[in-house]
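During the reporting period the student researcher (J.K.) took over the structure-prediction task from the postdoctoral fellow and processed the backlog of single-chain submissions. One of the processed entries is reproduced below for the supervisory committee.
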Amino acid sequence: MLPKLSDYIPENLSDKLKFIGPGLLLAIAAAGESGISEALEIGAHYHFELIWVIALTLVFKFAFTNGIARYTLSTGETIFEGLKKIPGPKNWTVFFVTVIFLLEMFAFGGMLLFGAIFLDYYLPGVYFERLIALLTLAIIIFLLWKDSYERVEFVVIAIAICLFVGIGYCLLEFNLPLASIAGGLIPKVPSGSILSIMALMGAIGSGLNLLLYSVWLNEKSQGEHGPEFFKKYIGSVNFDLVIAFFLVSVVTVLFLTLGVSGFVVSFIGHGEVLTLDAMIVQVLYVLANIPFGDSFFLVFGYLIMFGATVTGMDGRARAISSIIKSSSSTKISETDLYRIIIGVFAVIIASAIFFGEPTALIHSVAAIGSIMFALLGFMVIYLDLKLPDYSRGNRLWLLVMILGSSAFLFMALMMEGTFILVGLPLIESLVLLIIPVYIFMRTDLFKKCITKRLEIADLIWVILIFGAISVYGAFRGIQIEDIIINVGHVGPMIAGIICGPFAGAMSGLAGGIYILETGGNTSQIFALGTIAAGIITGYFTYYWKGELNYSKAAAMVIIAELVNFILIPFIFHKDPAYIADLIRRSFLPMLIANMTGVLIFIYFLKEGRYCIKYSHLTEETSTNEKSFSNTALSEENHGNNSEEEK
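J.K. obtained the following structure tokens:
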């Protein structure tokens, strides 16, 4: 049994320090994202001009984490259980968070490669960078495999102590420009800094990682909750959070200072590309005047990335395994689920290690989670208002949360005009596609589709209708360099759902032919992807016997888009760097747009009480038709008469 922090604390302080630990895990996870990958580069570009962003962001994220901590201490549940209570389709919030957690594993591949580069500088010419990253991943899997929170906490506390010692040493030897730092607290927006501000807001103090604090806190409290427990330990939890965010702020400012000291304005201009090698070489040059300064920087840089990956994988695996266990009837134990998820994470991270520049991986995934994180701020407010009076946030907390969540949402949507240039046209196209789908669902042809009583002429009509929808979705695409972001997969996917793989493939063929006619380097990839989308949804709908829900529909879309962006490009190019670039530029908008269209269709099915059944029909007597109507096709008016029919 590993020793606990409480074993070294006098009894009279044990209550006050009972919950020291989860905050350190959070701090290490946050430092891995912000301490090096963002702060160094932003310091090089903008010096201390964006210190105010760091300060305001940490205030908001402290309030955010305090809200989920109060929820856990009050209810004995993790915040993920709370998110299931948000109005809307069942479990939609935890589903989206889970998807983003999986996408973030690509960033952890970038972190490990980042750490390996630091270690390679420390031991030059001894190892290959990717080999170091893979060996580090193997060590992390070994540490996590036991599913022991105590082991993770022990490792992270050891790393945190090393960081405290190293930071203290550097602060003593390295003169911080306090006047410049204080001047940076005055809000100003330098030219071309919008993207950097967005990156800082997403990375400083972490983003969706903050949700993991609830998981670790629940592990620490063993599910205890209630008024007395809350009042006794809320002070200890807040103290834990103060330590966590203080450590994050010090690490961030220190590395920001290193970024400032390593470059001058004449060398690096606003918005100019800064390579990882250039950052490291310049920082090592600055630290050369401090005894062992370069060694501290390289070793601690590696430790931060190591610790961030340990905490990130552990917290996400605990959250996802808990979600699966509580939302399904699986007989797999939570420990086995945890290990399975760790294995899935390891596969994603290992593949990401070969995807090239780690800074780009970390930067892109930080931007991906920004919109969801902003929305989660409003969800935490909603859950907080449902808490008992003794655990509810005060007015100041509510004000900080509303302002912070609104600012995050605004910055996420307006970043580089992506929402205006891509998001709005895609939404417009999607709306225009959904209207004919809704009209189609009111026809007798649709009823024949879902009851599997189609004739050849009916099938041809379905292919023509959804083929036209696919063509229109591709026609209304948005051209970004050599890629057309479009919703052309919606038609084939819906055709595959209601009529099977053949109808999905033929509908996709129509859209695929149009995409081929447009030409371009990616036309073959997206043409085949459109056909594959119809086949995949048709096959899975048949496999699940037509019993679809939101999570199954979303899973089908994810698989179809992964085939489109990974498998098919590999057949044509076999170049991991090209595939990584394709994913970074277009995977997320295509996934969100096409998934939204399919989920809206599933919503229409459920609201109309339609149920697709893949079963063999008996002889069509009037009795059989009535029986089939009761099981395979139910509409709203049928629900009103169900008692009479019985």
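The committee noted the following: The chain has 27 helices and two strands.
J.K. will present the remaining backlog at the next meeting.
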